[in-house]
């Protein structure tokens, strides 16, 4: 199986490196050539363009930051038209079905399509322990199983249903995580301002019905070291919240909490910049109250 991989950023770089390290015949491309060095060092071949990357490939994997980037790569740059008949496109980006439908118009009718967004943060991509949420045909999942099992935890591969459902699950889980993060930040800040030791408060919440993976694991880097997780930029968080809001409006679901959290993220992005980490809203709360959330 010959694999093309386009998009070797903070997530895609590790994912493509793991494929190369596992012995997969893989060619990579990214507009940022420096980001290609991680998979190249593991044995991947480098292409000079997206079209060169995908030429002759049996499977194309894309891991791109926005729906606009996907359309620009696949349609405007001619990658979709260059895919060989009978091959497979696996889009692992956080995107929407409408973008995939636009790309499909430029594909040969025999090209198979899977939407398979991921979760697990940059550490999961690095260790190959990500969750994968796939929408498509079971026979196509089986064909690509070797690739999925290298990039993610086989126990965390989810067949979400027909095409487009993988995208939907990813938007829902991202929205829920961001909602939970803002709520958790407010709860911790409230407790600390009321005189509770931060670690005592966190341990109490972990031992309560309010426990979550976010409290147990995800937030520890921030509480210990002030790490706001720049591996996933706040600009991308804002994009994901906007896409979730768009999906909600399209299916008629009110999103009052989601809209409030999106506004919090937009304010944090305006204050600290596009490249600040996905946990940067906590710094906005900290700065506004002069109360750092750090273990003593």
Structure described in brief:
This protein is α/β, with parallel strands linked by helices and 296 residues long. It has helices at residues 12-21, 37-41, 50-54, 67-76, 79-82, 97-104, 121-127, 138-143, 145-151, 165-193, 198-206, 213-218, 220-225, 234-251, 256-272, 280-289; strands at 2-6, 25-29, 45-46, 59-62, 88-91, 112-115, 118-119, 130-135, 152-161.
Task: Label this structure with key terms.
single chain, 296 residues, alpha/beta, Rossmann fold, N-(1-d-carboxylethyl)-l-norvaline Dehydrogenase, domain 2, 2 domains, six-stranded parallel β-sheet, three-stranded mixed β-sheet, 9 strands, elongated
């Amino acid at each position: 199986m010959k694999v093309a991989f386009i998009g070797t950023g903070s997530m895609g770089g590790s994912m493509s490196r793991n494929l190369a390290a596992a012995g997969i015949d893989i060619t990579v491309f990214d507009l940022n050539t420096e980001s290609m060095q991680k998979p190249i060092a593991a044995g991947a071949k480098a292409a000079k363009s997206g079209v060169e990357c995908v030429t002759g490939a049996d499977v194309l994997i894309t891991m791109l930051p926005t729906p606009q980037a996907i359309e620009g790569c696949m349609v405007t740059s001619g990658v979709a038209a260059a895919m060989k008949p009978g091959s497979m496109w696996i889009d692992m980006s956080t995107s929407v079905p409408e973008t995939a439908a636009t790309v499909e118009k430029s594909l040969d009718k025999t090209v198979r399509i899977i939407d398979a967004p991921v979760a697990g943060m940059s550490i999961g991509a690095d260790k190959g322990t990500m969750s994968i949420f796939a929408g498509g045909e079971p026979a196509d999942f089986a064909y690509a199983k070797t690739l999925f099992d290298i990039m993610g935890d086989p126990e965390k591969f989810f067949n979400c249903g027909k095409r487009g459902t993988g995208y939907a699950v990813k938007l829902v889980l991202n929205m829920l995580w961001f909602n939970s993060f803002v709520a958790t930040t407010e709860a911790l800040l409230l407790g600390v301002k009321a005189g509770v030791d931060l670690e005592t408060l966190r341990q109490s919440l972990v031992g309560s019905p309010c426990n979550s993976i976010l409290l147990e694991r995800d937030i520890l880097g921030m509480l210990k070291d002030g790490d706001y997780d720049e591996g996933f930029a706040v600009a991308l968080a804002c994009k994901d919240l906007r896409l979730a809001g768009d999906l909600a409006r399209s299916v008629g679901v009110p999103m009052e909490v989601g809209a409030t959290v999106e506004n919090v993220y937009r304010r944090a992005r305006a204050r600290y910049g596009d490249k600040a980490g996905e946990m940067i809203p906590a710094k906005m709360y900290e700065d506004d109250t002069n109360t750092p959330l750090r273990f003593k």
